[in-house]
Design goal:
- The chain has about 100 residues and is mostly helical.
- It folds into 2 domains: about 1-60, Arc Repressor Mutant, subunit A (Orthogonal Bundle), CATH 1.10.10; about 60-99.
- Helices cover about 75% and strands about 0% of the residues.
- Helix 1 crosses helix 3 (about 35-50).
- The longest helix has about 40 residues, at about 60-99.
- It is rod-shaped, with a radius of gyration of 25 Å.
Amino acid sequence: MGRRTFSREYKKQTIKQVLEEGLRVTEVADALRISEQTIYRWLREQDKYGEEAFKGPGNARIDSEYRIKVLEKQNQQLEQENEILKKYRAFLKGKRKRR
């Protein structure tokens, strides 16, 4: 069984039950058959990002942050490789002058 994804509307309706209707997280989690941790995470995201929270199914914000870290690491690797190639080019240039 794969990971479940939830729409923005589903997440908003779920946290609305907790925030506006006064239901306990455990009650909502049991009724919807999702983990309490998931609801708490959605509540934190709503609190932190407001209307910007839940931009599509899954956790796009965390996915994009992860993607940025991957790209930064890849960029650093490419910069190191570029420096090595520059040094090798200079080495070859120096070797040709000696001939």
